[in-house]
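Its record is set out here:
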Amino acid sequence: MLMLYSGQEANMRQQKLGRSDINVSEICLGSMTWGTQNDYTEASAQIDKAWEQGVNFIDTAELYPTTPLSAETQGDTEEIIGKYM
């Protein structure tokens, strides 16, 4: 999970993350299609739109991109997020 922070105010409701003092938006941006179905440009547009709406975290998983088609696509999601940041 990746959390984004800024002074940006939005109407998105937030919840505490577990027992931490971190607040995250109730809606999460999933990244499972990045790297296979969506390229960097499309993923960046999705992140921008989510951020504008107050979403402040992105879900990643060890299997993303979803059902990796090959060893070459494993890690593409994280590379896209890293490049964006």
